[in-house]
Amino acid sequence: MQKENQHMTRPIVHIVYLLVLLLGSQPLNGQRPGGGQRPPLPPGKGAIAGKLMDSSTDEAIAYANVLVYPSGDSVLLTGVTSRENGMFIVRPLDFGSYRIVVNYIGYEDLILEDVTISEESKMARLGPVRLFAGANQLTEVEVTAEREAIEFGLDKKVFNVEKNLGNVGGDALEVLKNIPSITLDTEGNVSLRGSQNVRILVNGKPSGLSGLDRRAILEQIPASTILRVEVLTNPSAKYDPEGTAGIINIVTKNQNKKGFNLTSQVNIGTRDKYNAAIGINQRVGKFNVFASYNYRYDDRFRAGARTRTNFFFDDPFILNQDFLGSRI
């Protein structure tokens, strides 16, 4: 009896064992790389899949944009970004024809026309999609900016006189006349805020403009060589002003052209006003030798009348004067 029971249980064990083997050998279709089951596509829907790669190195391109447009239409329908391994899948999409645009920084845009999904082919597998590195050459960009006519700093005012047409053909004296708070008398004496106790510098150095020959030296500086004039009414401790009025610093243009240079200009004005200037410059290495000559003829006509009455007790004194003249 015991032997019969053993013979009956053996076929049952074999049947159970075969069932386990059959169930374990079934393929796992539609699984994601992470092991999760991808949901099936709904009826009437399809998908487009592919892998983005570099055309020269065959390396995967991650985080590139994959845009989907209906064929013949410019309206964006949907889009995805590629994964770290370059794979992408766009789903679900209606059956039809689509245009795929792939773009990524540093690569040329790739356009795939007429990618079709249908009932017979629900998954449009594009396979390896290779992108080519873009070689865009930028054109030259020139950025220009103009300085303001007047700039205000913490300790100075800067007057940019380089493009002031009123200074054309003149000298440094003409430039200073057109700057507020600076006045010049008929003898060429420079005053700042009404005081002649002012120190005049050229490019931050005295340059002989601290004595009585200021006018002669200023007349030798052509206005065309002056870049800006700095007025320091409250100079810092690094300066040693002659008086309390402040400092005037004349900044000239940098002349770095090597060899021999010659500049000249002639100006003619109404009522017998003529001006001419010539400058010669020779630069050898670090040394620069220059000379300049200026000529000015300015006929200024004056006419007027003056009446003066002096009262000395009971005997008034009346003086009438008429004057007519010209100043050259």
Task: Describe the overall structure.
The chain has 328 residues and is mainly β. Helices cover 11% and strands 45% of the residues. The protein contains 3 helices and 19 strands. It has helices spanning 2-24, 172-177, 214-219; strands at 45-54, 65-70, 78-81, 87-94, 96-103, 110-117, 123-131, 150-152, 157-160, 182-184, 190-192, 198-202, 226-232, 246-252, 259-269, 273-284, 287-298, 300-312, 315-327. It has a 5-stranded mixed sheet, with no helix packed on it. A 4-stranded antiparallel sheet has the order 3-2-5-6, with no helix packed on it. A 3-stranded mixed sheet has the order 4-1-7, with no helix packed on it. The longest helix has 23 residues, at 2-24. It is elongated.
The total count of helices amounts to 3
Give me the Rg, rounded.
Answer: 46 Å
Mean pLDDT: 75
Biggest sheet architecture: 5 strands, mixed
How far apart are the first and last residues' alpha carbons, in Å? 154 Å
Count the E strands: 19
In N-to-C order, the SSE pattern is HEEEEEEEEEHEEEHEEEEEEE
Structural class: mainly beta
Q: How big a fraction of the residues is strand?
A: 35-45%
- Helix fraction? 10-25%
Low-confidence stretches: 1-7, 24-36
List the defining traits of the structure above.
elongated, 328 residues, 11% helix, disordered N terminus, mainly beta, 45% strand, 3 helices, 4-stranded antiparallel beta sheet
